[in-house]
Amino acid sequence: MTNQTRRGFLLSGGAVLGASALPFLKALPAQAASGDVIVAVMGQTINSLDLHRSGTNRPSYQVAVNVYDRLVSFGTKETPDGGLSYDYSVIEPEVAESWEITDTEMIFKLKPEGKFQDGSPITAADVKWSFDRAVSLGGFPAVQMKAGSLESPDQFVAVDDLTFKIKMLRPSKLTLPDLAVPVPMIINSKVALANATDDDPWATEYLHTTPAGSGAFKVAQWKPGEQLVYERNEGYTSGPVPAIKRVVLREVPSPATRRALLERGDVNLSFNMPNKDAKELSDMDGVTIQTTPIENAIYCLNPNLSFEPFKDKRVRQAIAWSVPYQEVFETAAYGRGKPMWGGESTTPSDIAWPQPFPYSTDLDKAKALLEEAGYGAGFEVPLSISLGQADWMEPVALLVQENLAKIGITAVIDKVPGANWRTASLVEKRLPLHLETFGGWLNYPCYYFFWAYLEGHLFNSSNYRNEEIETLTAETLHMPVDDPEYAPKIKRMIEIAWDEVPRIALWQPALNVGMHDVKDFEYWFHRQLDIRNLKGV
Amino acid sequence: MSDTTTSPRRQALAHFAYVMRDNPVTFLAFAMFAAFVLMALFGPALVPYDPLASDASKALQPPSASHWFGTDNLGRDVFSRVIVATRLDLTISVAAVALSFVFGSILGAVAGYWGGWLDAVLNRVLDTIMAFPLFVLAMGIVAALGNTVENIVYATAIINLPFYARLVRAEVNIRREAGFVQAAKLSGESDISILARQIFPNALPPMMVQISLNLGWAILNAAGLSFIGLGVRPPEAEWGIMVAEGANFIISGEWWLALFPGLWLMMAVFTFNLMGDGLRDLVDPRRRT
Amino acid sequence: MSGRLKSIGLRVLQAVPVVIGVVVVSFVLTRALPGDPAVYFAGAAADEQSIQQIREALGLDKSLLQQFLIYVGDLLHGDFGQSIMTGQPVADDLIRKLPASLELTLLALCMSCGLAVPLGIMAARNPGSLQDHLCRMVVTAGVSLPTFFTGVLLIYVFYYLLGWAPSPLGRLDFIYIEPDTVTGFYLIDSAIIGDWEVFFGALKQLALPAITLALFTMAPIARMTRAAMLSVLSSDFIRTARAAGLTERKVLYGYALRNALLPVVTTLGMVFSFTLGANVLVEKVFAWPGIGSYAVEALVASDYAAVQGFVLSMALLFVALNLIIDISYSLIDPRIGFEAR
């Protein structure tokens, strides 16, 4: 036994994993991705296998996507450049087979053949327990559920084994799509309850390290800070069994190393590549780069209204006219993404969001506006960036700083540690001039406005308040998109946001994924790696 | 000394010349040091471009006649930045080492001369500082205080303090009972004066080496802090931050971003390290024959 | 023998104030870190109420003194707390990551000694010669290189350009099975079960980061060897030995080196702590799953428990190391007892 070779554990399936050995794996790196196994790299750490637990970070959400199912999911569509993306307009069954929606309730029929990974059937009681958990544990999951008007366990009823009912607080277009985000994942409540304790009724300690889902993949191994190994769920019932047998996901913090690995063909997939690498590798043989603009997201420069000069909208407009947009886009984004400047008209013609703001680089106009506002002599302001996002924030800040100097504004770059950033920018909202990025999961303009333009809301880091926007957002948030009143109201909101510019749009960011001998990566709004659809080449 | 007519200054000069001739490596080190000092003093006036002026149309150009070291991702001239950075880097290291030298010497002298509970407390404090991997301690201090140039200097000074304090304490401790000290005491010299004039100079030669080595370490330390994002703020030119940022460009073929500041950084540390031995030869009384 | 045990006990006692100091410093340092762990813990879109809940759950609403007492109490029970970053108990994280760092550091030190000690001896035999200057230049150049720069350069040349080195992906390429944990050192664990394939796999991964560190640590060792050899070689007993007609080899290695080793070993202790610090940067470059990179991440995330755990384990390591050095003193030179120090 001792002289048996120990190679090939993860790729061929050693005794530990119980899969049969495959013959080809002696010299792996030269021929990574032999159809069955994919090696992927990413820069961040997965810190929990349970999305609902407090402290779970964003990269961990992918476990909820790959290992758990939801009642419903979004469809898949092809993007203009030939890649795949989820389709916001189509809601498809996942654990649910069919559903009915009235003004007061939603009734879901579960698939009778639905099975968890341990072979036990998926029942409405599991769904009820999971939803109760999502709204009860607090933190981000509860907030996201609330966005879909899902607030209290009283709303969730297991009618019989295969019928689940949601009592609606109000009719809202956001409820059904909110069931397809990663948060309302369905947990095997029998397993979870068997491992719950009096102190921990929701089994957070157990599910933190041991998933109990019905998803397309199981977790075969998890070493925090090193790697996560997914193994295909052969008995998957909520959709087609994946083509890939195993996915080894390594965490490699250095972007240069990730690039080298992909270039040399030692890994099959590099998730969330820097724009520069994506641009330069896009012409390389054997490597496919899929770049998808991130829906409902904008990288912005935010002047804070609690800072005296920015109370005057002309000063904010002056800043907007002074940004060297083209250089910023070329230098910080390497041209990946979509320009969000140079809009033709100051009134929007449609309700597309985001769409280019009606500003471009015009220093004379900027100077004139400053004069008019009485700040012709300029002023000094700190320009804050996060160390955690220095890759794009730093070049942007330097270029903005340079142009602001030309109109007499002295901007001092203030690097805020990553751990401090959120508190300073979003919670305390105390940064006078800063960069900000917000992307809404649910793809509606009103949803973006709700988070980013309403006073006191988390991503409104500019302390902006406008009575008309407050009213219009409240009116449109739950209104169906095909309501004839919807479009005019949204257009009005966009028009105000453009004129008053509490957020100066720079560009719409993009998600880059590099692939080698793999295809069919599917982009999702949650911007996490969904491996269910991947195929070898 | 055979020639009794030469003035002390000429003696010193002659000794300097002797050390230089005697050891070519020391000569090289001092020559390089002089070059760095010149760069620090006059660099900003001499460089061809504004080290902070970006030009997106000229981003990432390889070295050429107009940009000797190429340009960085914002189109800034790497050569100008490397030269201008000399002043900041030297300032950080000299300030940090000067601080730790002064405070370390005072603490060490006091503890070594008077001993007692003062000595015991100081020793425990130094032990505690030294129980940390030094770079990690510097990281913690800068992370806690915020990443400004001053805090980098303080952090570097704190982690170097024990070396000086220990050295001085040991020297003072050995010599406080020595005959010449007793004699000075009897002749009515005050304790402070004895410490400063009789005992302390003996600790200088070993400390010279330490200072020189520490100047090098201080630069490396600041560079390391920059590498993990706790360094000098942009757009300031600093070698460490330039190497750290440039390191991400090596794989994509833009080697000049990291190589030149790296080279300069290495040369500076190299100079300080080599100078240590030369300095010891210069100040060591036993070598003056 | 009991006398020796007693003096070891005394040495341990001497370390107690240091450990107490480290506990205090680690606590103060972490509380001074920017950022609010409760906010971080609560996640991206949490509201004030859930942040407050978490603050209470973490005990962060209590006074600093109370927090400190709770912290010390937990430590006495062997509880290092839970890391926010990895979501694991800090003690588990450290146990898993410490061997990775130690293996790298020790291998680097061995390589460094293997080169630096002969270089130092060579330089000491002919002080002022070309060899001496060359040796000094080489080791000084090594210590002048920022480790993260050397690391990236080595990866570029040996992995990216030449393809000699394996991909810089941590301790073991994923095609190998990790050896069962005995010591946590892959080299030793794989050698124990006689699995040489894994042994060489692990060695290949270790090579570049270890070289990076070794280059950096050669200088102090070589310098100390040179200085110590110089002073020993000029001492009376060597002159006597030479006069007595002993071979040069015997004089050099039998007498001089043995006596010169003492200061070298002392330096090693210093260098070890120095290397652990440099490790932080090297681990980041090579995606090495050690405690150095763990500490950097923890600092950036204001992960109190993880930073404290790291700092404490370092201090304990250092105390243990000093003990080992003191014991090896008496092995190298039996004349030196503990009492002498």
TrEMBL record, chain A:
<comment type="similarity">
    <text>Belongs to the bacterial solute-binding protein 5 family.</text>
</comment>
<feature type="domain" description="Solute-binding protein family 5">
    <location>
        <begin position="91"/>
        <end position="454"/>
    </location>
</feature>
<keyword id="KW-0732">Signal</keyword>
<dbReference type="InterPro" id="IPR039424">
    <property type="entry name" value="SBP_5"/>
</dbReference>
<dbReference type="InterPro" id="IPR030678">
    <property type="entry name" value="Peptide/Ni-bd"/>
</dbReference>
<feature type="signal peptide">
    <location>
        <begin position="1"/>
        <end position="32"/>
    </location>
</feature>
<dbReference type="GO" id="GO:0043190">
    <property type="term" value="C:ATP-binding cassette (ABC) transporter complex"/>
</dbReference>
<dbReference type="GO" id="GO:0015833">
    <property type="term" value="P:peptide transport"/>
</dbReference>
<dbReference type="InterPro" id="IPR006311">
    <property type="entry name" value="TAT_signal"/>
</dbReference>
<keyword id="KW-0813">Transport</keyword>
<dbReference type="InterPro" id="IPR000914">
    <property type="entry name" value="SBP_5_dom"/>
</dbReference>
<dbReference type="GO" id="GO:0030288">
    <property type="term" value="C:outer membrane-bounded periplasmic space"/>
</dbReference>
<protein>
    <submittedName>
        <fullName>Dipeptide-binding periplasmic protein</fullName>
    </submittedName>
</protein>
<dbReference type="Pfam" id="PF00496">
    <property type="entry name" value="SBP_bac_5"/>
</dbReference>
<dbReference type="GO" id="GO:1904680">
    <property type="term" value="F:peptide transmembrane transporter activity"/>
</dbReference>
TrEMBL record, chain B:
<feature type="domain" description="ABC transmembrane type-1">
    <location>
        <begin position="86"/>
        <end position="276"/>
    </location>
</feature>
<keyword id="KW-0472">Membrane</keyword>
<keyword id="KW-1003">Cell membrane</keyword>
<dbReference type="InterPro" id="IPR000515">
    <property type="entry name" value="MetI-like"/>
</dbReference>
<feature type="transmembrane region" description="Helical">
    <location>
        <begin position="152"/>
        <end position="168"/>
    </location>
</feature>
<dbReference type="GO" id="GO:0015833">
    <property type="term" value="P:peptide transport"/>
</dbReference>
<dbReference type="Pfam" id="PF12911">
    <property type="entry name" value="OppC_N"/>
</dbReference>
<dbReference type="InterPro" id="IPR025966">
    <property type="entry name" value="OppC_N"/>
</dbReference>
<comment type="similarity">
    <text>Belongs to the binding-protein-dependent transport system permease family.</text>
</comment>
<dbReference type="GO" id="GO:0015031">
    <property type="term" value="P:protein transport"/>
</dbReference>
<dbReference type="GO" id="GO:0005886">
    <property type="term" value="C:plasma membrane"/>
</dbReference>
<keyword id="KW-0571">Peptide transport</keyword>
<dbReference type="InterPro" id="IPR035906">
    <property type="entry name" value="MetI-like_sf"/>
</dbReference>
<dbReference type="InterPro" id="IPR050366">
    <property type="entry name" value="BP-dependent_transpt_permease"/>
</dbReference>
<keyword id="KW-0812">Transmembrane</keyword>
TrEMBL record, chain C:
<comment type="similarity">
    <text>Belongs to the binding-protein-dependent transport system permease family.</text>
</comment>
<feature type="transmembrane region" description="Helical">
    <location>
        <begin position="304"/>
        <end position="325"/>
    </location>
</feature>
<keyword id="KW-0472">Membrane</keyword>
<dbReference type="Pfam" id="PF00528">
    <property type="entry name" value="BPD_transp_1"/>
</dbReference>
<keyword id="KW-0812">Transmembrane</keyword>
<feature type="transmembrane region" description="Helical">
    <location>
        <begin position="137"/>
        <end position="162"/>
    </location>
</feature>
<dbReference type="GO" id="GO:0071916">
    <property type="term" value="F:dipeptide transmembrane transporter activity"/>
</dbReference>
<feature type="domain" description="ABC transmembrane type-1">
    <location>
        <begin position="98"/>
        <end position="329"/>
    </location>
</feature>
<feature type="transmembrane region" description="Helical">
    <location>
        <begin position="206"/>
        <end position="225"/>
    </location>
</feature>
<dbReference type="InterPro" id="IPR035906">
    <property type="entry name" value="MetI-like_sf"/>
</dbReference>
<dbReference type="GO" id="GO:0005886">
    <property type="term" value="C:plasma membrane"/>
</dbReference>
<feature type="transmembrane region" description="Helical">
    <location>
        <begin position="260"/>
        <end position="282"/>
    </location>
</feature>
<keyword id="KW-1003">Cell membrane</keyword>
<feature type="transmembrane region" description="Helical">
    <location>
        <begin position="104"/>
        <end position="125"/>
    </location>
</feature>
<dbReference type="Pfam" id="PF19300">
    <property type="entry name" value="BPD_transp_1_N"/>
</dbReference>
